[in-house]
Amino acid sequence: MHSNWIYLTAWVRARVKDDRAASLVEYALLVALIALVCIAAVTLLGSAASNKFSVIASGVSGAGS
Length: 65
Known about the structure:
Number of strands: 0
């Protein structure tokens, strides 16, 4: 794990030497942060949404009887 971190930091430092690469790293970090927020939202809200859909589905199937 430590060697992966060293590799990653060396890779980022090599890319930050020019402005264009710095922008690329910033965009990559931004995309990673957005992905983490989306995953957290789906994890937290997923079970609540699943329960709500189950209630709706049982109501719909009960209405047809």
